[in-house]
Automatic annotation (TrEMBL):
<dbReference type="Pfam" id="PF01048">
    <property type="entry name" value="PNP_UDP_1"/>
</dbReference>
<dbReference type="InterPro" id="IPR011270">
    <property type="entry name" value="Pur_Nuc_Pase_Ino/Guo-sp"/>
</dbReference>
<dbReference type="InterPro" id="IPR000845">
    <property type="entry name" value="Nucleoside_phosphorylase_d"/>
</dbReference>
<comment type="subunit">
    <text>Homotrimer.</text>
</comment>
<keyword id="KW-0328">Glycosyltransferase</keyword>
<feature type="domain" description="Nucleoside phosphorylase">
    <location>
        <begin position="23"/>
        <end position="269"/>
    </location>
</feature>
<comment type="similarity">
    <text>Belongs to the PNP/MTAP phosphorylase family.</text>
</comment>
<comment type="pathway">
    <text>Purine metabolism; purine nucleoside salvage.</text>
</comment>
<dbReference type="GO" id="GO:0005737">
    <property type="term" value="C:cytoplasm"/>
</dbReference>
<keyword id="KW-0808">Transferase</keyword>
<dbReference type="GO" id="GO:0004731">
    <property type="term" value="F:purine-nucleoside phosphorylase activity"/>
</dbReference>
<protein>
    <recommendedName>
        <fullName>Purine nucleoside phosphorylase</fullName>
        <ecNumber>2.4.2.1</ecNumber>
    </recommendedName>
</protein>
<dbReference type="InterPro" id="IPR035994">
    <property type="entry name" value="Nucleoside_phosphorylase_sf"/>
</dbReference>
<dbReference type="InterPro" id="IPR018099">
    <property type="entry name" value="Purine_phosphorylase-2_CS"/>
</dbReference>
<dbReference type="GO" id="GO:0009116">
    <property type="term" value="P:nucleoside metabolic process"/>
</dbReference>
<dbReference type="InterPro" id="IPR011268">
    <property type="entry name" value="Purine_phosphorylase"/>
</dbReference>
<comment type="function">
    <text>The purine nucleoside phosphorylases catalyze the phosphorolytic breakdown of the N-glycosidic bond in the beta-(deoxy)ribonucleoside molecules, with the formation of the corresponding free purine bases and pentose-1-phosphate.</text>
</comment>
Length: 271
């Protein structure tokens, strides 16, 4: 794996020249418009990058965007990868390892998720302060590459507390409904049954989604500070569970996106 990471990193460095990103950004479902705020210097399609997995979802663009945002040099993944697409966890998290090798000092992650907490409504935001991993594989399974990180990385503080507090302050100052909570990662791609939503709430979850945690594990493995935030696109706590479609989820994510963009921009500006 290390050889592949280095090969991919060297290819990208050759393509972007002396550009050195400080911040890595992973944009979730329906949340790709932040790219419009970036002063783009270079774009690379996933399919043109050696060993880089390709997003199979029609609503994920599949581009690495290099440019400046809020005065900082960034690299943004416009389109993330999911376990349910058929990739293994090492493939899903490969881009995080490459971004770290490119020089990023902080990783920002966004996603769309379903609310499990009756106090967290559809269209609100939730800063992730912890997670529960119910996905069937772990990206650290297999031989450990000591050059990348320790065999048994600590996960007592997987999300950077200073960034959590700053984001909540930014949200409050701009009258944005933004909560703090626990994210549960499941496999997908189906949404949950009423009984599953109830179970996920009982075990301590505030929101549920199909991504993010593998990337967080690998970022912690590599000593990379992480901030993650969810747009809550549906509600799984109602006694009468309402059917929901992916089109509705994307529409709600896009409606909430300006609030997310504002928080991420101000957070990046303060790094």
């Amino acid at each position: 794996m290390l050889d592949s990471i280095l090969n991919t990193t060297n290819y990208i460095k050759h393509r972007i020249g002396d550009f050195e990103p400080e911040v890595g950004i992973i944009l979730g479902t329906g949340l790709g418009a932040l790219v419009k705020e970036i002063e783009v210097e270079k774009q690379l399609m996933y399919g043109n990058i050696p060993d880089f997995p390709i997003s199979t979802l029609e609503f994920h663009s599949g581009k690495l965007i290099f440019g400046t945002l809020a005065g900082k040099k960034v690299v943004a993944m416009q389109g993330r990868l999911h376990y349910y697409e058929g990739y293994n966890m090492q493939q899903i998290t490969f881009p995080v390892r490459v971004m770290k090798m490119l020089g990023i000092k902080t990783l920002l992650v966004s996603n769309a998720s379903g609310s499990l907490n009756p106090d967290f409504k559809k269209g609100d935001l939730m800063v992730i302060n912890d997670h529960i991993n119910l996905q069937p594989q772990n990206p650290l399974v297999g031989r450990n590459e000591e050059e990348l990180g320790p065999r048994f990385p600590d996960m007592s503080r997987p999300y950077e507390r200073t960034l959590i507090n700053k984001a909540l302050d930014i949200a409050a100052a701009n009258n944005i409904a933004c909560h703090k909570g626990v994210y549960v990662a499941v496999t997908g791609p189906n949404l949950e049954t009423k009984a599953e939503y109830r179970y996920l709430r009982i075990i301590g979850g505030d929101a549920v989604g199909m991504s993010t945690v593998p990337e967080i594990i690998v970022a912690n493995h590599m000593g990379l500070p992480v901030f993650a935030i969810s747009v809550l696109t549906d509600e799984g706590f109602n006694e009468e569970l309402q059917p929901v479609s992916i089109d509705e989820i994307i529409a709600i994510a896009q409606e909430a996106e300006p609030k997310l963009t504002l928080i991420l921009k101000e957070l990046i500006a303060g790094l």
